[in-house]
Amino acid sequence: MKLVVAITGASGVVYGVRLLEELKKVGVETHAIVSDAAYLTMKYETSYTRKQISSLPTHIYTEEELEAPVASGSFQTDGMVIAPCSMKTLAGISYGFENNLVIRAALVTLKERRPLLLLIRETPLSSIQIENMLRCSRSGAVVMPASPSFYNDPRDVSAMVDQMVGRILDSLRISHSLGRRWSGSPRKG
Fold first, then answer.
1. Which of 4, 45, 49, 161 could cross-link with 80 by S-S, CB 3.0 to 4.6 Å?
2. Does residue 189 lie within any of the structural domains?
3. Range of the structural domain that residue 8 is part of
4. Is the pLDDT of residue 182 over 80?
5. Which of 72, 64, 51 is nearest to 4 (CA)?
6. Is 74 helix (H, G, I), strand (E, B) or coil?
7. Which segments within 24-166 are labelled E, that is strand?
C-alpha cells in the first residue's frame, strides 16, 4: 500500500504524526507533505523535531515541491489523508486553488477517484467552512472532523488521538489495534 499523508498548520499536528508512526509500523509506503505552518504549530503543541518527523515517512516533501511525484495522477497511490486539515487547505481544495503541493496532491487524488480523507480541525464553523466541506464531500472526499469518542473512557489525550487515528485507518481499511471499539451498551440486570 502507498499513501500520501499531508500535515498542515491547523492545531492537532499530532494526528498526522501519530498516523505516520502507525503507517510505518504496519509497513505502508508513505509520501508525506509537511507545510511550514505545520512545523511552526509542532513547536507549540508537541516535542517533535523536524528530524524526528523526517524519519517517519518513506518520502517527505515541502509544500513548495510542485515537481514531487505526488503532484501527478500518473503516480499511483492508494489515497491521501490530510491530518490535520486547515480551513485554508479545505478552501483551496474546495475551489481547486492549487497554490501548494498539499492542495495539488489532494486534487490529483480526487480526479483519479482515490480516497481522500480530510481530518478537519476548527470550531465553531462558519457557513463558508461548512459549504467548503460540502463541496469537498460532493467531489468525493471524506470529511472527518477530529471528534474523538468518549465511550472508550480515554485515559489521556494520547488515547483520544489514537482513537481518531484508528478511525482514519478504519476508513482506509488498514488493520490496527488502536483504541477500543464499540461493542454495544452493557446490559443491565
1. 4
2. no
3. 2-171
4. no
5. 72
6. coil
7. 29-34, 59-62, 80-85, 116-120, 142-145
Comparing 74 with 153, which gets the higher pLDDT? 74
What values do phi and psi take at 88, rounded to 5?
-65, -45
Average pLDDT over residues 124-135: 98
What is the C-alpha R_g of the chain? 16
* pTM of the predicted model as reported, rounded to 2 decimal places: 0.94
Residue 19, in any domain of the structure = yes
Query: Whose CA is closest to 8, among 30, 33, 35, 32?
Result: 35
The three cell numbers of residue 6 are 499531508
Does residue 166 lie within any of the structural domains?
yes
Average pLDDT over residues 89-98: 97
Query: Which residues are CB-contacts of 29 (< 8 A; sequence separation ≥ 6)?
Result: 1, 2, 3, 58
Q: What is the CATH number of the domain that holds 21?
A: 3.40.50.1950
Three-state DSSP class for residue 93 = helix
CA atoms lying within 13 Å on the CB side of residue 18: 22
